[in-house]
Amino acid sequence: MIPYYRLLRLERTATSEEIKRAYHQLARKYHPDHHDGHPKAEDRFRLIAEAYGVLSDPDKRKNYDRFGAAGLVRAGSNGGMAEKMGRLVSELGTILESRINKGPKRGKDRRISLEVSLEEVLTGTQRTIAVLVRAVCSECNGSRVRDGAQLESCHVCAGKGRVRGSRPLPFNELCVFCEGMGSLAILTCAECDGVGEQDSTSSHSIDVPAGVQDGRCLVLRGYGEPGHQGGDDGDLFVEIRLHKDEWRTRDGLDIHCIVPIRLNEAVYGGEIEVPTLDGKTVRVIIPKGVQSGKIMRLKGRGLSLDDSKTSGDMFIQLRVEVPILMKEGKKALDQLEKVSTYPKSDTYTQAMKKRLE
Fold first, then answer.
1. Cα–chain-centroid distance for residue 8?
2. Which CATH number fits domain 248-356: 3.40.120.10, 2.60.260.20, 3.60.10.10, 3.30.70.590?
C-alpha cells in the first residue's frame, strides 16, 4: 500500500489545513480534465483522493498512524478477525507480486499464419513477412512527454521506482504512482500515450523448407513481444498453411490431382497434358472406355523433403464430365442411347434382382 503522507508530500505532523492545501494542489495538477482524460491521470487522481480521504478524517488518520493499512480495517469494522486477515493477506499478495515483477520478465510470444502454395512446398522458398515490433516513439523519441515538456521525478518514491510500504508489512514495493519508472510524464505524448514506444512493422525474410507440412510452426527467436526490465524478447511462431486448391490435395509426400475429361475422350480414349509442380507438363494417355474415377499414378512427381532423396507420387483421378446439352442435342443423345451398351450398369441391375428374389 502506498504511503499516504508521501503521496501528498506531507510530514506525519502535518496539520489539517496543510493536508487540505496539499490535496488541492495535487488534485489540480493531476486532475483528468487537465490531461484529456488519460487513464494514468485518472489513476493518480484516484490515489490522491484516497490519501486525502484517510488523512482528512481524524479517526481514520489516528488508526492509520498507529496501525498502518491494518488500521483502516480496524476503523471500518467491528473487529472481525476474518476481515482483518483478509486485508493482510491481500496486501502480502500485492507485495509478493511486486517483488516477483521486479526482476527481468520475458516478453510474450506472437503467432501468425503464412500461406504457401504446393509449388513453393516442392522446392522450398524464401518469403518476406511483416513483423510487428516495438520501436521508440517517433513523436517523443522515447521521452514519454509532449514536445517542450519534461519528465518530473516522482515525489512518492523520490525517483527510485520503489517505496517502503506502511505497517504491518513495511517491505519495499513497486511505486504505483509512477509504475516503477521513477519519473512522471505530466504532459504525456499523444502518439504513444506516455509509454515511449509504439508498434511498427518491419520486413523479415523467412526460409520455408521443401516438403514442409501443413500446420508446422517455424520459429523466429526474439521477434515476439518485448521483454520487461531487461528480460528477453518473446518469439514469433509462423504457422505454415497450405493454400487451398480446387484440383489438387496433398497426402504426405503424394499429390492427388483431379482431371476432368470430356465424354468423347472417355469413350474413344485420347491424350491430355497434366501440369506438374515443377512447372512442366506430363502427357497422359486416356484408355478407351475409361470410367469416371479411374486413378493413374505418375511416379516421383510428388513432393520431397529437404533432408531426403525420397519423393512422393502424383495420382491423377479422371473425372468424366457429363455434358450440358442444348435443345438440339437431345435428339443426338437419344440416338446415342440406341447404339450404346452399359455392361457395369447391366451387371449391377442383375445382381440386385437376384438379391430380391
1. 41
2. 2.60.260.20
Q: Which CATH architecture has domain 110-149+187-242?
A: Sandwich (2.60)
> What's the chain's length in residues?
357
Indicate the fold that domain 4-100 takes in CATH: Helix Hairpins (1.10.287)
Q: What cell numbers appear for 271 in the block?
A: 491424350
Ranges of the chain with pLDDT below 70: 1-2, 34-39, 69-103, 148, 165-172, 228-229, 306-308
Computed on alpha carbons and rounded to an integer, the radius of gyration of the chain in Å comes to 38
pLDDT tens readout for residues 99-155: 555 567 788 898 999 999 988 888 889 999 988 777 778 778 777 777 767 778 888
pTM to 2 decimals? 0.55
Beta carbons of 97 and 223 less than 8 angstroms apart: no
